[in-house]
Design a protein that fits this description.
With 258 residues, this protein is mainly β. 12% of the residues lie in helices and 45% in strands. It has helices at 5-10, 38-46, 118-124, 130-138; strands spanning 24-27, 54-65, 68-79, 83-87, 93-97, 102-106, 111-115, 150-155, 158-163, 171-176, 183-190, 195-207, 210-222, 225-238, 253-254. The chain has a 15-stranded mixed sheet that branches. β13 and β14 form a beta hairpin. The termini are close together.
């Protein structure tokens, strides 16, 4: 079987966000509030969820593992709750993700992939679906904070949220900023499988008076293997009438993943 490392970088999906020259500014200042209960913190975090219909940006993805290192600049489009679309220069590589499936093709070697979320789940070491991928990109918690009871603690002047009863198969930790109540880091560990996923939101910025991640770092560890990706979004526009064209060229060979 041919090796296709480009899929890892283009479909990494842990991506998001953006800088718009006139409508964005980095979120860094403010007065810290370290006196909230878990319920108050979850409510404050929910108020920061961005409201939009469509999003377009230039996305720079840098990816490294033991045997591969790549950087790609692509066009990124998102129609909230419906589709995530990525396109490289001259449409050489194009990917589309919907709630139903993950699709991808590469004109450099005339190959394509079309399937479920198992590939992305295996890549990042935790079970994913469209909603979880979208949440990851928007700086939202992968799992809904309304689905469990959480305890809160303060470590290094940051809020740490964790379920009062952790799951048997995995443990979840969310670290939230006391300045803007957005996620600074979310971590999912599966000790029995020696897996760990960490998503760090290094900087946030304001776009149209709403907070979005600006730079994201993703670390996925399984046993002694480590994958690191950094994501940077630029030139963002919201609520434009966007197209999401995707069709697999005829004659391409299907990539079968183990």
């Amino acid at each position: 079987m041919k090796k296709h490392p480009h899929i890892l970088s283009v479909l990494l999906l842990a991506f998001v966000f953006f800088t718009s020259c006139k409508s964005t500014k980095r979120i860094a200042s403010g007065e810290a509030n370290l006196d909230l209960s878990a319920k108050q913190l979850i409510k404050a975090n929910a108020k920061q969820s961005p409201e939009f219909k469509t999003l377009q940006a230039r996305l720079k993805i840098s990816y490294s593992s033991e045997d591969d290192e790549q950087t790609h600049s692509v066009t990124f489009r998102l129609k909230k709750d419906e589709v995530i679309w990525i396109n490289s220069a001259f449409s050489v590589i194009r990917a589309m993700i919907t709630p139903e499936k993950v699709s991808f093709y590469n004109k450099l070697d005339n190959t394509f992939f079309e399937g479920d979320y198992k590939y992305l789940s295996d890549l990042l070491g935790t079970e994913l679906d469209f909603e979880k991928v979208q949440n990851l990109l928007l700086g939202e918690t992968i799992f809904s904070l309304n689905d469990d009871d959480y305890s809160v603690s303060i470590i290094d002047d940051l809020y740490v949220l964790q379920p009062k009863k952790q799951q048997k198969l995995f443990e979840i930790f969310y670290i939230l900023s006391p300045l803007h109540f957005k996620v600074k880091s979310q971590q999912i560990s599966q000790p029995s499988d020696f897996r760990h996923l960490q998503i760090d939101y290094l900087t946030y910025q304001e776009v149209n008076k709403q907070p979005f991640p600006e730079n994201i770092k993703i670390i996925a560890v399984e046993a002694n293997k480590e994958m690191i990706a950094t994501l940077e979004f630029k030139s963002v526009s919201l609520n434009e009438d966007l197209r999401f064209p995707f069709s697999i060229p005829s004659g391409f060979d299907e990539i079968k993943l183990k």
